[in-house]
Design brief:
By secondary structure, the chain is of the alpha/beta class. The chain is built from nine helices and 13 strands.
Length: 268
């Protein structure tokens, strides 16, 4: 049986190319995609449970990484479909493209809140809950009462924040954000704090909420889009029957997205 493992960590990597070489070595028996940059690592991989365990242990303990990935969190889910067909490790300028230079996420995660705390936050009147994902992801599924910023790409999110920050400040609102695995929120919340906003984020994102809360369906409507061949998961982290056409039908570039996704699906 195959399992999917998602992970990331913001950590200074002086030599991303050397890290990538080591990653290609320890991930050779897996499929998936790993991004490496000077700011850290962001990966999604798939394999059998035993192979994943060896990889995850190596990522944490291999001497070539010099303890850079100690404490990294792995979010696993079982697979019905094969999520990926190849293994790719790329060196990039950013591990998540935000488009604003100089953003340094808080390595201590001080603005993270646990799934149980998140449930309490969503019920408060002084909290505005923001979905920090693309609109097509929001349409497929969302936390009840969450706001869709109506952005087609993560790089467009700062414009939404800048337009609304004065109102949130004036109303004394805490901005509670969530995304699929946590990485987009971690990047944007660091920048938002510099704007003087009171910001918190769901630790580990939607996937961690589903994993941690047996009754997650009380707070969630629909499904969660994932960027691999499984397409979408329910609150039990089970693959659904959702198609690319259902995900991208309302997007301006929907036909291109559908065709691209299907090309990648046939790549195996």
């Amino acid at each position: 049986m195959l399992f999917h493992s998602a992970f990331y960590k913001f950590v200074e990597l002086p030599d991303p190319d050397a890290v990538a070489v080591a990653l290609r070595d320890i991930a050779s028996s897996l499929t998936g995609s790993i991004l490496v940059a000077g700011e850290g690592i962001n990966g999604v991989v798939a394999g059998t449970a035993s192979v994943l365990e060896v990889f995850e242990d190596s990522l944490v303990h291999d001497a070539r990484f010099n303890d850079a990935f100690a404490g990294i969190a792995f979010k696993r889910s079982a697979c019905t479909s094969r999520p990926f067909f190849k293994m790719r490790v790329h060196v990039k300028r950013e591990i998540v493209a935000f488009g604003i230079d100089g953003v340094r996420p808080d390595a201590n995660g001080e603005n993270n809140v646990s799934p149980a705390q998140w449930r309490e936050l969503m019920a408060r009147d002084d909290v505005v809950v923001i979905d920090n994902r693309n609109s097509f992801e929001y349409r497929l599924g969302k936390f009840k009462g969450a706001i869709d910023p109506l952005v087609p790409n993560f790089r467009d999110f700062p414009k939404y924040v800048e337009a609304n920050a004065p109102t949130w400040k004036a109303e004394g609102k805490t901005v509670a954000m969530y995304c699929t695995g946590g990485i987009r929120c971690e990047k944007s919340s660091a920048w938002m704090q510099d704007l003087g906003l009171d910001v918190v984020q769901l630790e580990g994102g939607i996937l961690n909420y589903f994993q941690s809360m047996p009754d997650a369906e009380k707070d969630w409507e629909g499904e969660c889009f994932v960027f691999d061949n499984r397409i979408a998961l329910d609150t039990k982290l089970q693959e659904t029957a959702t198609t690319y056409e259902e995900v991208y039908a309302q997007e301006p570039d929907g036909e291109w997205r559908i065709a691209r996704a299907k090309r990648l699906d046939l790549a195996g």
